Amino acid sequence: MRPMPMRRMSPFPSRDDAAAALIVRECGGDHDFPSDAGLTPTGTETDPTGETVNVRRNPCLRCGTVEVTRWRPPEPSAEAQTFIAVGTLEPPDPGDVPGVAERALRLTDQEYAAYLAECGYSGGVPADFAPDRRATATPQRLDLRVQVRAWQFALMGRHRSLGEIVPVPPYAESADLMDAVPDAVLFWAPVEDGDLHLPVQISTADPGPDPSHDRYAEISCRFATGHVALRQLGGPALDLPPLPAGHGDYRLRFHTGASGCLLQIWHQPRTRSLTTEVS
């Protein structure tokens, strides 16, 4: 039987979500977009007809709201260089909102409760969610061994099914060594089948890449309750300690190389994925 895909639901709002929303709200419609952006493209996209479209993304300096301009580049042989540019506004990822981490730490319980109520969650944070321990949590290091099958193992919400990430859904975000959907990350290990030594670091802030490894990738993932487990394909789940900021967005950095593997997990508002070689 083919595994059922993960149902894509609106996640329970985190304190980072509330802080980002307040910053955008306080900025209002008077955005501070850099005036010298012009129409120099920052990237390209493919439209539904298969044509290449230039894209210029220009974030507000105060709240991160993105002014997006799209246009088709004129044909090089065209005598007239006239084209139509279409502009829209897009909300930023929480990690791209200036000052969101500091605002989240200053967020009062009353502000958070009010935001939850706006989003339809008047009952507050469910009692079975992991608590927010950012003020007291200390870094942890776990030395684990996971069974790898077909190069793969996963980190998932404790009660999730492997069918939600294996096979990888088409809407997953990828970072070369990892694929992620809400509440689940699939890792591509340097071992096809067998036992993998996997040190795991869990912290409230970025511990920094480990230079003893040759390569690493980073990806963001939202964990619905803050309770997670390493899932072995064909083996038992390995429960990890509750994540230090409770439910919400985390950043994962997976290292590989001659010195072995290393997984780092820390709280960070969502932002774009990254893959790099360590020099």
Features:
six-stranded mixed beta sheet; 16 strands; 3 helices; 2 domains; Substrate Binding Domain Of DNAk, Chain A, domain 1; mainly beta
Number of structural units classed as domains: 2
Rg over C-alpha atoms, rounded to the nearest angstrom: 21 Å
Strand content: 25-35%
Q: Helix coverage percent of residues? A: 10-25%
CATH level-1 class of the largest domain:
Mainly Beta
Please, could you describe this protein's structure?
- The termini are far apart.
- Helices cover 11% and strands 34% of the residues.
- It is globular and about 65 Å long.
- The protein contains three helices and 16 strands.
- It folds into two domains: 104 residues, no CATH class; 138 residues, Sandwich (Substrate Binding Domain Of DNAk, Chain A, domain 1), CATH 2.60.34.30.
- It is mostly beta strands and 279 residues long.
- It has a six-stranded mixed beta sheet with strand order 5-10-15-14-11-16, with no helix packed on it. A six-stranded antiparallel beta sheet has the order 7-8-9-6-12-13, with no helix packed on it. A four-stranded antiparallel beta sheet has the order 1-2-3-4, with no helix packed on it.
- Helix 1 packs across helix 2.
